[in-house]
Amino acid sequence: MKEWIVIVLILTVILWIVLFPKQETYTFVNQKALPVVGYKIELDGEIEKPGVYTIYEPMRLEEIIVFAYGLTKQADLDEVELSKVYDQDSYIYIPSIDEEDIIVDVKININEANFQMLLTIPGIQERQAASIVVYREANGLFGSLDELINVNYIGPKTLEKIRPYLTY
Predict the structure, then answer these.
(1) What is the CATH number of domain 35-102?
(2) What CATH class is the domain 103-168?
(3) How far from 18 is each of 11, 12, 22, 26, CA to CA, in Å?
């Protein structure tokens, strides 16, 4: 009789294992989406399709021009650096071969100019233009051009270089 009880117990355990296996456990990994950083590049001048293009990784000008369907036949490549890498919002102007250096009598008002207008001033780089806009928003309008010396990235030499192109 003991033998039958042991056999029944063993069979019960085996059937229990077969009919009721251990439940599988799942581990879920919750990953947050990474933000996508896009840079707006405005192409103008001797480009087949000028306009604003968004890139999502740093690119050379040569690669960006491909997005704009290339250059026109009048593009002056001596004035542009095709190997320059763009990794922030930028304005790029491709000049024409026929274009001469035009002396402009129109001065840019430092209190009204936006970032893109400031970039058209010879001698102004992107970080300087951005600093002018930020300084103006934080401290109000400029009372004179000499106040530009207080702006980050603008020293006395830069101020004298850009002074002929500015008014306030």
Answers:
(1) 3.10.20
(2) mainly alpha
(3) 10, 10, 10, 21
